[in-house]
Every structure is written in structure tokens, then in C-alpha cells.
Amino acid sequence: MNKATEYAIEVENLTKSYGDLLAVNDISFTVGKGEVFALLGPNGAGKTTTVEIIDTIRTPTSGKVTLLGMDVTKYKHDIVHRIGVLPQGFTSFDRITVRETLQYYSRLYHCRNTDIDGLIGLVNLTDKRDEQYKNLSGGLKQRLGIAISLVNDPEVVFLDEPTTGLDPRARHEVWQVLQGLKKAGKTVLLTTHYMEEAELLADMVAIISRGKIIAMGSPVELIHNNADTQILTLQSADEKVFEIVRRIGFEPVHTNHNNIRIRVEHTEDVQQILSAIKDAGSFYRGLDVRKPNLEEVFLKLTGEALRDGYVEGGEAE
Ligand SMILES: Nc1ncnc2c1ncn2[C@@H]1O[C@H](COP(=O)(O)OP(=O)(O)O)[C@@H](O)[C@H]1O
Ligand SMILES: [Mg+2]
After folding, report:
1. 53 lines ligand 1 (CB under 6 A)
2. How far are the Cα atoms of 66, 178, 263, 280, 295 from residue 310, in angstroms, in the given order?
């Protein structure tokens, strides 16, 4: 099989500078056809810059990017018909209905046979199809945006932070739509700072921080490769436990409901902690030991949080 048919996207040593700022710093990856690939990283990591170079909106400083076998700097006109884009922070025309919006975008792409109602069904907006854009909730707006990205029946779809700012329920509804895209065989390049989203949807994840890819693999591989760490949670611990654990050299973190979370390297560490608590006559109501999730892998690799306001262990309880 030649490379042009094997991969939907090939990025080789891609760099992008804005003046003195190296926003994307020598990154390389490939996305297979039909694969969902997630760029996972915090604000400013270089996700949008990377995506918008691949989808031909921005121009690279150096490196080579090939989309469906075509150099993205040379074949913009051919590429545009074969891709769909949901830009970060997408908005549309306030007073135009869902159906009219899709009809309009379909005409922009010169598509004669877009199945508008089929698309509306795919993103679960059938009962909202005559609603104006301004009356849709955030999640419904994003689902319309995904439908817009599909009007030309693209082979590769770029979704830049499709669920940022949505409440958990709306996010889950967008995830269902994205799982539908995957089933339909689309190649999807997704950016996100929700590790749960990457874990659930992506075949491959590249963790990106300050313009560099610092780890790449399937969600399972990423977690496995960083599984030297375990997460011990002590439930309903009394107030002395925190200090006891700290005194013997660990870094406990308070989470909800008097729970304490401790990152440990070995099983013996768990035994040492439990003995120290017992010897001091303190108590806890229960415990569990588990592998880190992608968010914790990210923290370990970068020392930075994926989102503002994220507190380690603060959300998982
Ligand atoms: N057009 C631009 N001009 C100058 N700096 C930019 C431009 N676009 C992005 N940047 C900067 O490049 C870095 C990466 O931005 P971006 O690609 O938007 O990251 P992300 O999508 O991961 O949040 C940030 O420091 C951002 O401020
Ligand atoms: Mg961005």
C-alpha cells in the first residue's frame, strides 16, 4: 500500500512561529484513514495552529503536511472539497433556522445533493430544524456546527474543541454524535482539553504541551506506559491522616468528602502509608488503589493542568 492511501494525514517536523513565539515546535504524527485522532493539551499548547495548518487555513513556517496524499500548501483548492471544519468558538447567523443554515452552507460548497434532513437527523436536531440559531443552547449550536462541517460529505473532519464550555449532559450528547461520525468511517482530527473525551472517542491521542508532542499512543497505551504511578484514595479519613501521610514523605491531596488522594510508586508505599496511619491510631473508612487516568498522566508528564481551575482529584469523586 502506498503512503498516500494508507494515511489521511501526515505531519512531518511541522513548525510554526509567530514572531519570536514558537507556537508549534517540530511535531510529527500520522492519522490513518477512518481513525479518530485527538490532540489533547491546555490552552496555548498549539492545537488550533496545528489543526488550521493541516486544514489549509494557516501556512506552516517549516515542515511537511500531507492531507489525503496532497501537500497542504500546494493543493488548497482540491483539499477544501474533501474536508469539513468546525472551528474553535464557532458561531453562525443568529436569525437563520437550522435547516436554512445547512442549506446555505451546502450551496457555498456547491453541493447539489446534500441530504439536509439526514444531516439534521445525524446530529439529533430534527425537532429543532425550524428554530433560529440564536434560540439554540450551546450544545445544540455545536451539533449544528458539526452538521455544517459535514455538508460536503467530507472524508476528513476537523473539530476544534467541539465541547468546550458545554455542561456535562450537552457534552455527552455531542460525544454521541461524534461516535456516529466514527461509525460512518470519517477520519476525525479532534482537539480537546477533556481527557475523558480523548479517552472515550480517540483511537490515538497526542499529548501536546507548549508546541511539542510529549507523548503519543492509544489511550490504553498512554496510561499503561505511565502506570508506574498508582493512585491511592483514602475515604472519610480523620483530620490527622493528611499530616501523617505528609510526614512520611508523600504528597497527599484533599478531595471531596474528607477523601485524601496520594500518588504512589509501589505497592509497598501503600503498605507503609496504611501502617503509619494504624500506628498513629488514626482511621479512614475505605480505600481504593487504581491506575491513573489520562488527566493524571498529563499532569505527571507536564506538571501543568489541562484546564484552568482543575484541581487534581477534584472532579473524579
Ligand atoms: N495568529 C497568531 N498570531 C500570534 N500568536 C498566535 C496566533 N495564533 C496563536 N498564537 C499563539 O500561539 C500559541 C498557540 O496557540 P493555539 O494554537 O491557539 O493553541 P491552542 O489551540 O492549543 O490553545 C499561543 O501562545 C497563542 O497565543
Ligand atoms: Mg485552540
Report:
1. no
2. 36, 25, 17, 32, 10
